[in-house]
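Request: How about a record?
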Amino acid sequence: MATALLSVRVDSDDKRRFDAFCADAGMNVSVAVNMFIKAALRENRLPFEVKGDPFYSAANMNRLRTSIADVEAGRASLKEHELIEAD
């Protein structure tokens, strides 16, 4: 089997933590990445669920920018409130 080099950029702290995780699991990063690739190819999908966070949607970001501009322009004010948590 011929091999090829795959290079990716990751946050240095994430890399350090992932190296430690892999060592704790008895493998190295190369083995973990190869497991990910094999699973993705076998299943023809990412081997985990990927979901967007609605907080970062374009509509919500625009609403936040508008709200910030309103507060900065004096058209609105910030009010304290208690966090409502679901039971």
In short: The two ends are 54 Å apart (CA to CA). The first helix runs from residue 12 to 24. Helices lie at 12-24, 29-43, 58-72. Residues 12-43 form one domain.
